[in-house]
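Database export, one record per block. Field names are fixed; values are copied verbatim from the stored entry.
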Amino acid sequence: MTNERILIVDDEPDLVELVELTLGRMGLRTASAPDVKSAQARLRAEPFDLCLSDMQLPDGDGLQLLAWAQEQCPGLPMAIITAHGNVETAVRALKSGAFDFVSKPLDLGVLRRLVTRALALSAQRAEATGGRSSRLLGSSPPMQQLRELIARVARSQAPVHIAGESGTGKELVARLIHQSGPRADGPFVAVNCGAIPAELMESEFFGHRRGAFTGAVADQKGLVQSAEGGTLVLDEVADLPLHMQVKLLRVIQEKSVRPVGDAQETQIDVRVLSATHKNLADLVHQGRFREDLYYRINVIELRVPALRERGSDIQELTASILQRLANSSDIKPPMVSPQALAVLICYAFPGNVRELENVLERAMTLRTGERIEASDLQLRQPASSPSLERTTDLSPPAPALVVASAPTASSALGEQLEGIEREAIVKALEQSRYNKTAAAKLLGMSFRALRYRIKKLGIE
């Protein structure tokens, strides 16, 4: 017998007995309460590892108990029992912070898996706190807020939609949600929805049976089933054709798939995350994305900030990327001149972190001296639309970036960066004999951007 205790809140004696028997066979201890008031009393008096509550109770509902428990018992996972097919209620519960939900009539297999994941949550959360999320580099306020949101949504089973420009690290955010939650030991399957041919999409997603179509010489498991017990990431979900959106909606709602050529549906246990650089709400208005699927996958939305919104992270990111590139080539990471760092800070980076990585890799290859100079960066003017390639990963924290001839470390960060930027602009102006157009070209920025920086820094 284990020490984990589960509180069952329901006024139907038969259902309570069924749940108690099921959990008892798992070696778990249980207690029950018939209404909100008595459940609150039990939670005040005794520690529990999970609360499983019916939505409809004699003196209130499960959402009321959920709201109370979040204040009085922070960290307690709580799952809601909903009526069969009541998707709206399930979504409300997940939005309110429920760990997960299970529908009546109870599927005991689904219930056992839910309880197992909930009880694993505390250990996984402690492991995540131990440093996994540190791979999401940056100490700027937007990144601090993003890390806090990742920690909060990781303990839930609610679908999460990750929005952000290409190159910001959306897949990394999805991986951190997976690693910080109770499914960390399960598979992590990321699918690029825009990379699968339309005619093969159903078979790739849901699998097929032998003989289902020409060339189907054996049973094949689909990507959804490959994520069993773990997390399925629908990258570039906006690229799904409408007919697949219908089928995916059913998979998410019913938690089951039907392989091509099979008459039977197979139950699945996966958490669905989605990501795209496109505006799904706009696509819904244009009739290019189903509204019902939009609300189903967008229960919680996380926005990954663009690199230009977190300029104070440029130095840390540059240090990490150069360290990783140097390690792969077994060389010492190069220093970065103050002028080069100032150029990186001023640049808009339409391709975000991926573009920063490409710029630094090119500069390491083309440099002629011991350090990277502004001329080695070869930054181009940003295009009208950001890059559409897949996101890049960020390496673990690296040693602090070495900036040649930089101000002392005791200076305030803002003053230090402004000093570096001012020095780079003055040097470029001197080299171009104070021709601002030529200086802007040397610095890899537009004339208007240079004029703005000159005015802001008070350069005469």
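Remark 1: The first strand starts at residue 5 and ends at 9.
Remark 2: Residues 125-134, 382-413 have pLDDT under 50 and may be disordered.
End of record.
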